[in-house]
Amino acid sequence: MTRKERIIKAFNELRADNLHILDDFYHSDVLFEDPLGKIESLAALKNYYQSMYQNVTDISFDFSLLIEEGDSIMGTWTMDLKAKGLNKGNSVLVKGVSHLRFEEDSNLVNYHRDYFDVGEMVYEHIPLLGTSLKLIKKKLSH
Prior knowledge:
Elements: H1 3-13, E1 26-34, E2 37-40, H2 42-53, E3 56-69, E4 72-83, E5 92-102, E6 109-116, H3 118-121, H4 129-140
Parallel strand pairs: 1-6
Antiparallel strand pairs: 1-2, 3-4, 4-5, 5-6
């Protein structure tokens, strides 16, 4: 399986009840960063995913582009997320970009950075706060 295929498979199969699949994807010393913080180790990353995915009822990633250069892959994606307590359980679409770097010897991901708009993912779907944010974005738009 190619690295690109492994990424698509891992992103789309991961759920709160199968975190063991991360053992064959991430290096034990992985560095993970996203707009919510920085995590340094596979054990800590599993805890993060467990917490993030506990209310997820469905999630999928549609990759529109994956570019491989040396040990790195950059990918653009749209996440379709359904979670209890978020947007009344309806789909939330979030566009993002991921940079993953593979450790040469093990071929496991030792660096993963996600770029996405947290407001688009969470804040805009919270009553009152979401309405306020949407109004602000509308006033600031071109």
